[in-house]
């Protein structure tokens, strides 16, 4: 349950703290005093979106923090699934910065809005006037049935099976689409693959062949120039080597006269040896160069094939051709193995669908089992709420699997005897919606492990005895749930175990909303004003005391 609420710098609230009672908390106040602002702040705790317009002081951040006692409520699984620390006290905080950036925390761990909503949905439920609109939707009606049936585990299993089926069907459908396209392209792709495979492509082959061809096409000139180079070095009377021999001889002579010339002689000798080796290599290379027109033509044909393939496939080298060949190989192989792959995917899809339909049938059975009990319970409560001839019929139709199952739930309602029930959204008035929603919330309260329930003017359109009965129902619910009720009706306000008053404070330069817990005398005065307006008469005050006394007596019993 909510043990402490802190609101700072939100709308008309500079700072507000609320420590609600464990049972039935009544909140009253004039229109515009800030009751809806409080609900808006609580809505942020539950994951609603916000912007900088909510800041009371635009230069400071907004903080909304709720402390919940969760001991005894079965919600540990949610914390485990979201990897959050669990404790008997759960602190939920929402911050909105000056720039409009929003942050959320659960037990000081940052969380995204989806996680925040999932956690807080287990802590608090808010009924607003907008829920009366939701009540007319089939989706919301299905949620009511699921909550009453307590089929969370079945619904989780169904959704898991539904997602598995969708995933497998998506794979199968994708394969079918690919198969159609690939079969159309198979002959062409296979032709290209065989052409590239036949070419026996090798990495770096083109560069090697181009170099070899360049040598073959210039073989005569290469041999001639190698011969000239050799003769310059060692095949004439005035060759470089002959001249160098003379230099070595002279340096050897003078090195005997002085050691300082020995290094010069050694360098010259080394150069002579190197030049002789160079001459030998040039001679060998000259002998190796052959004039082979046949080999040159073979290389030209091979290079022409490589060039043609590159032009055809619009690539720049053999490496790219090899990559293309491998891609085509995969496409061809995939088509050749496609039938087996399709058969396997189809088998998996059919198995997933069988499992999905089995889960759907189990879920539907759980829903069907509670339809009549819901009708009976709500019918009895509507009778107590002043609608003795009202009837609710729940119609269930089966269709295709969706995220929520195969069932479409429709609430059919009639407020009058002898009138055929029709779609709820088409026939119920505002007051009837309020009473119907009260009855629904009442029967669902015992079906959910939910600490706190907030009612925002669920009493719209009712008065008198009906309001008293609504108040009694809230009081009954408060024995097992913490109830926070915003109301304009004194009959409901009198049932509270704690009464808070929201008002505007104009004492400072800027108006602020405040809340205070009423003493017994203040409460008598507030209820008297709700009965007879401002400046209540002695009769109204007496009536208020009597109403509160009756509540105390009823609680004692």
Automatic annotation (TrEMBL):
One of its GO terms (biological process) is DNA repair. GO terms for molecular function: ATP binding. Residues 206-281 form a coiled coil. The keyword Cytoplasm does not apply. Pfam families: SMC_N. Residues 2-507 form the RecF/RecN/SMC N-terminal domain. Keywords: ATP-binding, Coiled coil, DNA damage, DNA repair, Nucleotide-binding. InterPro entries: DNA_recomb/repair_RecN (IPR004604), P-loop_NTPase (IPR027417), RecF/RecN/SMC_N (IPR003395). GO terms for cellular component: bacterial nucleoid. May be involved in recombinational repair of damaged DNA. NCBIfam families: recN. Belongs to the RecN family. This is DNA repair protein RecN. The lineage of its organism: Bacteria, Pseudomonadati, Bacteroidota, Cytophagia, Cytophagales.
């Amino acid at each position: 349950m909510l043990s402490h609420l802190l609101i700072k710098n939100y709308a008309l609230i500079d700072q507000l703290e609320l420590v609600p009672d464990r049972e039935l908390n009544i909140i009253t106040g004039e229109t515009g005093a800030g009751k809806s602002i409080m609900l808006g702040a609580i809505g942020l705790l539950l994951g609603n979106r916000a912007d900088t317009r909510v800041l009371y002081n635009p230069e400071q951040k907004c903080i909304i923090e709720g402390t919940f006692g969760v001991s005894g409520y079965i919600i540990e699984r949610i914390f485990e699934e979201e990897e959050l620390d669990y404790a008997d006290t759960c602190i939920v905080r929402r911050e909105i910065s000056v720039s409009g950036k929003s942050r959320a925390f659960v037990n000081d761990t940052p969380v995204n809005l989806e996680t925040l909503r999932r956690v807080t949905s287990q802590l608090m439920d808010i009924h607003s006037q907008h829920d009366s609109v939701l009540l007319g939707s089939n989706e919301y009606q299905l949620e009511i049935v699921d909550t009453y049936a307590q089929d969370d585990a079945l619904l989780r299993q169904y959704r898991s099976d539904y997602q598995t089926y969708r995933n497998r069907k998506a794979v199968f459908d994708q394969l079918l689409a690919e198969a159609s396209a690939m079969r159309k392209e198979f002959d062409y792709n296979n032709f290209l693959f065989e052409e590239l495979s036949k070419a026996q492509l090798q990495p770096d082959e083109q560069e090697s062949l181009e170099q070899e061809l360049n040598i073959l096409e210039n073989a005569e000139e290469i041999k001639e120039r190698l011969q000239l180079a050799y003769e310059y070095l060692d095949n004439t009377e005035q060759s470089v080597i002959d001249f160098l021999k003379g230099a070595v001889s002279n340096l050897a002579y003078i090195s005997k006269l002085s050691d300082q010339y020995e290094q010069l002689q050694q360098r010259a000798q080394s150069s002579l040896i190197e030049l002789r080796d160079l001459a030998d290599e040039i001679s060998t290379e000259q002998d190796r160069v052959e004039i082979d027109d046949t080999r040159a033509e073979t290389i030209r044909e091979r290079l022409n094939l490589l060039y043609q393939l590159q032009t055809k496939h619009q690539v720049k080298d053999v490496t790219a051709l090899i990559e293309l060949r491998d891609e085509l190989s995969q496409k061809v192989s995939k088509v050749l193995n496609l039938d087996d792959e399709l058969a396997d995917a189809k088998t998996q899809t059919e198995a997933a669908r069988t499992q999905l339909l089995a889960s759907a049938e189990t879920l539907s059975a759980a829903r069907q089992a509670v339809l009549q009990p819901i009708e009976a319970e709500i019918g009895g409560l509507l009778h107590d709420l002043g609608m003795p001839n009202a009837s609710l019929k729940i119609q269930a139709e089966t269709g295709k699997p969706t995220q929520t199952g195969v069932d479409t739930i429709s609430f059919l309602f009639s407020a009058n005897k002898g009138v055929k029930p029709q779609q709820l959204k088409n026939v119920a008035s505002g007051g009837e919606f309020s009473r119907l929603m009260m009855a629904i919330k009442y029967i669902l309260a015992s079906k959910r492990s939910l600490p706190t329930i907030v009612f925002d003017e669920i009493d719209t359109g009712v008065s008198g005895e009906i309001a008293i009965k609504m108040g009694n129902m809230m009081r009954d619910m408060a024995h097992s749930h913490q109830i926070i009720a915003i109301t304009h009706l004194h009959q409901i306000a009198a049932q509270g175990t704690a009464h808070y008053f929201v008002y505007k404070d104009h004492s400072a330069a800027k108006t602020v909303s405040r809340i205070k817990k009423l003493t017994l005398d203040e409460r008598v005065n507030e209820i008297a004003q709700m009965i007879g307006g401002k400046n209540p008469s002695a009769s109204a005050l007496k009536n208020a005391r009597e109403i509160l006394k009756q509540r105390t007596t009823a609680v004692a019993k």
